[in-house]
Amino acid sequence: MIILKFDLFNDPYYNKDYISLYLTKDDDIFEFLYSEDDKIFYNVAIKKKISSIGNVIIDKPYFDIESVYGYGGIYTNTQDKIFLNKAMNSYKKYCVENFIVAGFIRFNPFDSYLVYLSDYLDFFEYNRDIVVIDLTLSKEEIFKNYNSTTRNILRKMERDFTYRIEIMETEEKKNKILEKFIYLYYQTMDRNNASNFYYFDENYFKGLNALSFSKLFVAYKDNEVISMAYFLEGSDIVYYHLSANDPLKYNLKGNYLLLNEAVNYYLSMKKKYLVLGGGRTKDPNDSLFLFKRKFSKLILPFYVGGIIFMYDKYKEFCNISKSNEQKFLKYRV
In the beta sheet, which residues pair with residue 160? Predict the structure, then answer.
């Protein structure tokens, strides 16, 4: 595991404006902080009301919490077990007092204290590998780590002056091309048979554009848009967020150009890592994962976990659902 100290409160997935993009009816932002001197235990997540399970209405107000889409989870900056014991006991007590049944966590792959936190979880497992580009390397070293096919594609593009990249940094610029992004994004989701979760509405994208740490990269060929991608910027880490490709121009490989331009751009900004993420599935032969691997040999494990705060209620809800799902919050089907 890479040990990297980064500024938690400047990381996109702990930003409450970003988290707010995923709130639906009856959702709230959950936040908990326990500290002693310079030691911190912190979590921010989405708090969801459990209104019904199948056809069964839940009359009393019970909730669960879940890390936002991406890489977040409980944050701590210490391995002091005495502190962590006190923090976790306080955390569990707070959750019980607020009728929170359980919590699902998506951990940041750069969390160097993950091994210490895992001892306090009821559920903890490796989910999949993700691809990361090390921006502390030189431009030449990074390019050398691309596979040979990718290097050849990019060399050809470099000689073809009909290709170009535009980086939309302001909300105004991002909104001007938003309609085009949404159109291509939905087509991309259709092509990939994506789940309903990924069909974000226009308000989501407008909210994304309003974030100061989001940038939209646009690839053109002969002045026509062929690929687009959002990146989310932290103080040290940048995340490849959402992408869209024109299905009629997929053979022009605009996504290769976008990722290479992002590497060069964030190298110039002195960022340390560019997280490309994993595949659409856990399968190591997933086509999206294999595409991302063309850009880096650095692979990190992505872990998920869970904590049960109200054991009897959790068991009751799981029994009501009669779900055979393997997921932690199995009563949510």
Answer: none
Q: Domain limits of the chain?
A: 8-128+303-321, 137-271
Which residues make beta-bridge pairs with 195? none
Taking a C-beta distance cutoff of 8 angstroms, is the pair 34, 254 a contact? no
Give, for 277, the enclosing helix (H) or strand (E).
strand 273-277
Q: pLDDT tens digits, residue range 56-67?
A: 999 999 999 999
Structure tokens at 251: 């053979």
| Topology classification of domain 8-128+303-321 | Aminopeptidase (3.40.630)
322 and 114 in contact (C-beta within 8 Å)? no
Tokens of 22: 């995923």
Picking from 142, 146, 167, 135, the residue whose alpha carbon sits closest to that of residue 268 is 135
191 CB burial (10 A radius; 0-12, 13-18, 19+) = exposed
The pLDDT of residue 111: 84
Q: How far is residue 241's CA from residue 181's CA, in Å, rounded to a whole number?
A: 13
d(CA 309, CA 73): 16
Q: What is the DSSP string of 291-326?
A: HHHTT-SEEEEEEEEEEES-HHHHHHHHHHHT----
Region of residue 193 (left: phi > 0; alpha: psi -120 to 50; beta: else):
left
Query: CATH for 137-271?
Result: 3.40.630.30
The pTM (predicted TM-score) of the whole model is 0.94
Spatial distance between the Cα atoms of 5 and 111, rounded to a whole number of angstroms: 9
pLDDT at 204 over 70: yes
Question: Same CATH topology for 8-128+303-321 and 137-271?
Answer: yes
The whole-angstrom distance between residue 273's C-alpha and the CA centroid of its chain comes to: 14
Task: Count CA within 13 A, CB hemisphere, residue 86.
Answer: 11
Contact 185, 191 (CB under 8 A): no
Distance separating alpha carbons of residues 95 and 101, to the nearest angstrom: 8
Distance CA 332, CA 103 (A): 12
